[in-house]
């Protein structure tokens, strides 16, 4: 089912491919982006998010990545650029750079570490939304930032004409349902185990690390649910869960597990940048077993 959201519906939080020396691999990024859109069930890509190792890429690299991926996929997918930082001025600068580079939207995480109060958080998002003409997706992930975007703050922010979506990693289905029911914000599950539950209460889609390797399966869950085959959708959702667990909840960051699988599958990924380290052979073998079971 096509999405009317400016961000798409089935989005991959794409890894950022690096060379063996650790540099940005733009050719690899283009090949991976094309693969995810052509064969991976993705109608949107999120660049330079957590999975894209944004803490270790420079502003210049982020902009170059947007340009390369936009060139590779054209109008076949929506490109959302992760631009969040703990500094409002820096985030606004990145928003303008993303717009100039050709992104279709921006993903803005809650300012982290400083733990600002709710009205300061709201003003941060409004300032960034005013900095460019791009639609803004709020990224609510208190487990990493230390601060929640409270549902009442979401309701106020939904009044801004360019704040159009939410990546939801708050693990609060009641709060999310409250906001979905009262706004037009496009809600995206940022936690694969909640893709189907959030869709069932009015969510738009997902932004997934697992989609780097199993996007078609995750898209099939939503497609099946949307055509009314609820039992089949549940079965597909359950089929994906062991892979989700192995990639996202077994002790290693999703960036590491996604790159281990992509490399084994012969797709562009490359190394991770420190402080992250590559998965060891035993863990990579377990990841492949989960992948093969899910996609057989």
Automatic annotation (TrEMBL):
Keywords annotated in UniProt: Amino-acid biosynthesis, Cytoplasm, Diaminopimelate biosynthesis, Lyase, Lysine biosynthesis, Schiff base
Main location: cytoplasm
Biochemical pathway: Amino-acid biosynthesis; L-lysine biosynthesis via DAP pathway; (S)-tetrahydrodipicolinate from L-aspartate: step 3/4
Cellular component terms (Gene Ontology): cytosol
Single GO term (MF): 4-hydroxy-tetrahydrodipicolinate synthase activity
Pfam families: DHDPS
UniProt site positions, description: Part of a proton relay during catalysis: 50, 113
Protein localization: Cytoplasm
Active site residues per record: 139 (proton donor/acceptor), 167 (schiff-base intermediate with substrate)
EC number: 4.3.3.7
Enzymatic reactions: L-aspartate 4-semialdehyde + pyruvate = (2S,4S)-4-hydroxy-2,3,4,5-tetrahydrodipicolinate + H2O + H(+)
PROSITE patterns assigned to the protein according to its UniProt record, in alphabetical order: DHDPS_1, DHDPS_2
Subunit structure: Homotetramer; dimer of dimers.
Family: Belongs to the DapA family.
Protein name: 4-hydroxy-tetrahydrodipicolinate synthase
Gene that encodes the chain: dapA
